[in-house]
Amino acid sequence: MSGTAQVASRSGALKQYIGALNPGSYSLIFMVHEGVLEDMTLKDKSGSVYADTAPGWGWGPSDIANEIPFKVEDHATEIVFTASEPSGHAKLEYELKKTDAEKDVLLKTGQID
C-alpha cells in the first residue's frame, strides 16, 4: 500500500477523507444519526480500514449506516469525500473525487434521503 487515508475534518456539515490509494475497489461507509452525518469509515474490498473517524465505536439502533462503493482505476494521490446537509433538509448530498497529478476526477455524486 502506498499510503493511508486520513480524516481531514470532523465537522457535522462537512467530512473529507484524504489520502493515497492504490487501484482497487473501496467502500465508504458513513453513519447518519438523527439527520446528522457523523462517523465514517473507508475500507477496501478485503475489509482493511484506511480511515475511521471513530475507531472502535459502534453504531446504535437509531443510527443509519450508508455505503458508497467506488473503484480507483489507477493510483490516486488524494481521495476526497465531501458531504453536506442543506439547511432544513434531511437529504445528504455527497461528492466523491480523486486527485492525481494536479487533476481532479469526479468518481461519484449522489444524494441520500
Instruction: Give the class from helix and strand content and strand pairing.
Output: mainly beta
Overall tally of domains: 1
Largest sheet: 4 strands, antiparallel
What is the chain-wise order of helices and strands? EEEEEEEEE
Tell me the fraction of residues in β-strands, as a range: over 45%
Give me the Rg, rounded. 14 Å
Q: Detail the poorly predicted runs.
A: 1-15
> On the 0-100 scale, what is the average pLDDT?
62
Distance between the termini: 34 Å
Order of strands, widest sheet: 5-4-3-6
Q: Looking at the structure, what is the overall shape?
A: globular
- Number of DSSP strands? 9
Number of helices: 0
Would you give an account of this structure?
This protein has strands at residues 5-10, 15-19, 24-33, 36-44, 49-52, 63-72, 78-84, 92-100, 103-112. The chain is an all-beta fold and 113 residues long. The strands form 3 sheets. Strands 5-4-3-6 form a 4-stranded antiparallel beta sheet, with no helix packed on it. Strands 7-8-9 form a 3-stranded antiparallel beta sheet, with no helix packed on it. Strand 8 (92-100) and strand 9 (103-112) form a beta hairpin. It has one domain (5-112). The protein contains no helices and 9 strands.
Task: Name its key features.
113 residues; 9 strands; globular
Produce the secondary structure layout.
Elements: E1 5-10, E2 15-19, E3 24-33, E4 36-44, E5 49-52, E6 63-72, E7 78-84, E8 92-100, E9 103-112
Antiparallel strand pairs: 1-2, 3-4, 3-6, 4-5, 7-8, 8-9
